Amino acid sequence: MLFLITLGAIVSLVLAMTWLKLPPFVAFVGISILAGLAFQLSPELIFKAIQDGMGSTLGSIAGILAFGSILGKWVGISGAAQKMTEVLLSISGTRFARIAFMMAGFLVGLPLFYSVAFMLLAPLVITASVKLKQPATFLALPMLASLTVTQGYLPPHPAPLAIMQEFGADLSKTMIYGITIAIPAILISGLWFGLTTKNITTPANQAFVFVHDEHQPSERSLSTIPSFLIVLFPIILLALGSFGTGYFPKMASYLSNPIFSLFLSVLLAGILLKRIGFTSDELLSSSMISIKDIAGILLIFGGAGALKQVLVVAGVSQAVADSLGASTWNVYVLGWTMAAIIRVCVGSSTVAGITAAGFMKVILVNSMADPNLMVLALGAGSMMFSHVNDTGFWLFREYFSLNFRDTIRSWTLMDTLVSITGLIGVLVLDQILF
C-alpha cells in the first residue's frame, strides 16, 4: 500500500502542475498533505513533516543559492563570464566547446557541492550558448553529467562520504575506482547522450546571467586572472577546507563550509568590482535582483523537501529496504536497486544512498563484496531517474527555461544513464579486480 500511495502522489504531483497548471510550490504542499492523509498520519505529524522538510532543505541550500546567485550575477556584469568563456573556447575551439565544459564540470565538481558548482558554471554555459548561437541544453549536458557523477560517486561529497564511512571503505581506493567509472559514465551520459538534445532550442533563462555588453568600457571589465579568480576562489577555499584538516583544523572547519566560502568569495568579488568602477549602489541593486530571481526556486525546493519528509516519516524508504532485503540478487545490483527505488520515491540522492547503506551494511558483512565498489554502486543508484521530487530537477528546469517534457528527456534521462553506466562500471571492475 505504501508503494501505491507513493506512486499516486508522484502521478498526482505531475498532473497538478501540467494539467491543473498549479504553481509548483502549491502543488508540492497540497500533494504532501494528501499523501500524509493517505498514509494515515495524524495532522500534527503531517504538518510537522512539512515544516521539517522545508526547514531542512532550505536550511542546507538557501544560503548557498543566495551567495551563489549573487556571485553568478557579478561574474556576469563584470565581464568575467565573457572572459572565461573566451579563454575556454580559445583553448578548445568552437568544435570542442562541450568537451571544455565537461572538463570544467569535473574539476569544479570535485571539491564543490552540486548546487554551488551549478551556480558558478551555469552562467558560463549560458553565456557561451549566446556567443556561439548553440542550444544551451546541448552545451550544458556534458558539464551537468560531470557534476552529477562527482556528486554521486566521489567523496568528499556528503552521500559518498557517509556511505564510505558506513562501510569502512578506503578513501583512496574509492576515489581511484570512482574516477575510473566516472570517465565512461560522463562520456556516455553527457557527451554522447547530449547529442540527442541538440533540437531543444529553448533559450536559457537570461535572468540568471547578465550577458556582458561587448561595448562596455574596458576599465569596467575584469581582466583574465581576476575573472578566473572570482570563480576559482570558492573552489580553492573548499579544497583547503577538505584537505587542510591535519594542518589547520579550526580554519579548515570554516573553509569546508560552502556558505562561509561563498561569503568570502562574494566579498572578494565585490572588492574586485569596486576597483574597476562599480559603485556600491550598483552592486547592491544587482545582488537584490539576483536574490529575487531565485525566490521561486527556493519555494520549489522547500515544497520538494516537504514531500520528501512526508514520505520518509511514512516509512517509504524503510519499506523499500525491507522488501528487497530477502533478495538473492548480486549484492551490488541489490544495493543499486535499493538506492534507486528510494531515490525515485523520495527524491533525495543523499537520503537514498544513506538509507540503502544502513541496510546493506548487514548484507555486506556476510558477503564477499568489496566495500569500495559498494560505495559506488549505492552512489550510482542514488542518481537514478531524477524527477519532480528532486530539487536538482527544478534547478535545471528553471535555469534552462525548459518545459516538463524537455526536462524529462534531457535532465532525467541523463541522470538515468549516469546511474546505469555507474552500475555497469562497478560490475566490470568487480570482474577485473576480484
TrEMBL record:
Organism encoding this protein: Aquirufa nivalisilvae
Topology in membrane: Multi-pass membrane protein
Name of the protein in question: Gluconate permease
Transmembrane parts of this sequence: 26-46, 58-76, 96-124, 136-154, 174-195, 228-248, 254-273, 294-316, 336-359, 371-388, 408-429
Family: Belongs to the GntP permease family.
Compartments reported by the entry: Cell membrane
One GO cellular component term noted in the UniProt record for this chain: plasma membrane
Pfam families reported for this sequence: GntP_permease
Molecular function via GO: gluconate transmembrane transporter activity
The keyword Transmembrane appears for this protein: yes
Keywords: Cell membrane, Membrane, Transmembrane, Transmembrane helix, Transport
